[in-house]
Amino acid sequence: MPPITCPICSNRNPPGDLRCLKCGADLTDPDVLAMAAAEPVPMPASGLGDLGQLSSDKFLGVSRETLLEGGALRIVSLVGGIALILAFLIPIPKDPYQSKWWMAWSVGKPFAKWAFWFPLLFGAAGVALAFLPKPDRWIRAIILAAMSLFGILFLMPRLAAAGGGYRQMMPLFALGLVAAACAMTLRVYFPLERPPRIAIIVATAVTIVGLALPMAKAGEVMPFEFSVFHGGALKDASLLGLASDSFDEDMMVRLIGLYTMLVMVLFAGASAAAWPVPGGVWDKTSFVVRPVTWAVVLYWPMQKAVLVFNITGWTAPKGSGFRAAKQVSNFSNAIMITRTRMVLVTAVFVLWAVFSAVVIYKHFRPGAGASVKTTEVG
Question: Rounded CA gap, 104 and 94, in Å?
Fold first, then answer.
């Protein structure tokens, strides 16, 4: 008896089988058998079992389809724009020890005054991009990505300084973090693509080099806790060196050091989890890749949240320079509010960057996501 060819997927099944071994079609069903005489119709091979096909196409609630069509990018742009406008309206401490505040339009320090207006400017641009019919979605993505990079490299250090944060940005470390977040997001949306995997390895290497590279004025790239509560003088050092030296210091310093060191473990895990290619219909690697990607993408916003806790969750150590409990309370409240602004700003810039990267990647690599040829079903 000859093999039985399935009318649905053209798979050749052993004689006597009542169901197709590949697609599960009932080979005794008259309607199925009638398809054998029909004209072949194109059917995507992914419907028959593309590698990694059976995995969610959503990340942080945003699906790949709606993102590439442009609708989800408009929503991300709108929500981010509103968040930046809210960040602009958060007051800025004029004298953190006396609970004196001013709004962004009243800031008197020339070196920082322009920085506090950019959240409003970028926020308005984000809202406008969400509603304007033009430009095309990939140009909209490039605009959002450009605002994100400018905000991360130039704007965030000036905003962070008002909240007792770093006053200088480490470019390699910052670019490595953003590149890794974008590459991991691409790995989630395009599980069979090779370039995102390579980008993850490169971004991890850049980030670790940024951590290990010595710098002058080390105290200017760390939050004020290092300058105030660190047991020894801050000399020229690397971020990695400062973090490792913090383990014997006050808990306020130790927490920042531990979180800084976490990036090495996190990125090593990201590289290992993202490299395997799905070997079957189910993308089993996604059970590991997705949580790691969440951690990589949200690492920087969560760092700001950790700093908010750090200024409110511990008792100020002895010898820290505070002369009264009221002074400690005023100072902590001022720094907490300004660091809350940084949580909003950082989250917007990072999420704009990663979702824009998906749209830009697809535009310049239109074949991404179409890994299996179309097959004919007759």
Answer: 11
Which residues, other chains included, contact 172 with Cβ-Cβ below 8 Å and sequence gap of 6+?
A: 206, 207, 209, 210, 213
- Name the helix (H) or strand (E) containing 334: helix 325-364
Token pair for 86: 């809210």
Return the amino acid letter for 161: A
Residue from 114, 262, 252, 274 nearest 193 by CA = 274
What is the reported pLDDT for 81?
94
Whether this prediction's pTM lies above 0.90 is answered by no
CA distance 317 to 11: 73
Amino acid letter, residue 236 = D
Interatomic CA distance for residues 262 and 128, integer angstroms: 37
Contact status, residue 92 vs residue 342, Cβ threshold 8 Å? no
Residue 82: count other Cβ atoms within 10 Å of its Cβ: 16
C-alpha distance from residue 204 to each of 180, 199, 353 (Å): 7, 8, 17
pLDDT of residue 53: 44
pLDDT in tens, 332-356: 777 778 788 888 999 999 999 999 9
Q: What is the DSSP string of 222-233?
A: S-HHHHHH-SS-
Give the pLDDT score at 290: 84
- Dihedral sign (CA 264, 266, 267, 272): positive
237: helix, coil or strand? strand
Distance, CA of 367 to CA of 159 (rounded, Å):
40
pLDDT higher at 131 or 378: 131
Omega before 301 within 30 of 0, i.e. cis: no
Q: How far out from the chain centre does Cα 91 lie?
A: 27
CB 48 within 8 A of CB 23: yes
pLDDT tens-digit readout, 363-372: 888 776 554 3
- Structural domain spans, the chain: 4-38, 58-364
Q: Which residues contact 165 (CB under 8 A, 6 or more apart)?
A: 157, 159, 223, 224, 307, 339, 342
pLDDT digits (tens, 9 = 90+) for 126-149: 999 999 888 788 899 999 999 999
d(C-alpha 88, C-alpha 25), whole Å: 60
Q: If we measure between CA atoms, which residue out of 80, 159, 157, 162 comes closest to residue 334?
A: 162
